[in-house]
Amino acid sequence: MSDAERHAQGMRTRREVLGDAHVDRAEARKDDFTADFQDMITRYAWGEIWSRPGLDRRTRSCITLTAMVAGGHLDELAMHVRAAVRNGLTHEEIKEVLLQTAIYCGVPAANSAFAVAQRVLGELERPAGVTGVE
C-alpha cells in the first residue's frame, strides 16, 4: 500500500472510530508545525494499526482505554471513551475495563479514569444543546 492509500485508509478508519466532528476539528487546527504529525498518526495509527484485521474495534478500544489509563493520558482517554461507545462498548463494559485498570495500573489512575469516563458518558447521554449546567 502506498503512503497515499494508507493515509486514505487511515482517514476512513479515523472518521469511523472518532467521528467526523472530531476529525474535522483536528484537521482545522492543523498547521505547518503539526501537519507532519497529523499525517503520521493518520497513516500509521489509523491506516496501519487500527485498520489491521487481527482484532475487532471493540477489542482495540478496550486495549486503548487501558493504555490511556496506564499512561495517565486523560484528555486522550476522554476521546477514546467516546470512540469506545462508537465501537459498540456499553457503559458496563467500559466500567469493567476501568475496574481492570485499577488492579494493573493503580487505584489513583483508575479513580481519575472513572471521573473522566463518568463525565464523557454523561455528556453522551444528554440531548444535544443541553449542557447540564443550570
TrEMBL record:
The keyword Ubl conjugation appears for this protein: no
Domain Carboxymuconolactone decarboxylase-like: 36-118
Transmembrane segments: none
Record's keyword annotation contains Lyase: yes
Listed InterPro entries: 4CMD/NDH-1_regulator (IPR052512), AhpD-like (IPR029032), CMD-like (IPR003779), Decarb_PcaC (IPR012788)
Annotated keywords: Lyase
Any one GO molecular function term: 4-carboxymuconolactone decarboxylase activity
Enzyme Commission number(s) from the entry: 4.1.1.44
Pfam families tied to this protein: CMD
Enzyme class, broadest EC rank: lyase
SUPFAM superfamilies tied to this protein: AhpD-like
Protein name per the record: 4-carboxymuconolactone decarboxylase
Organism: Actinomadura monticuli
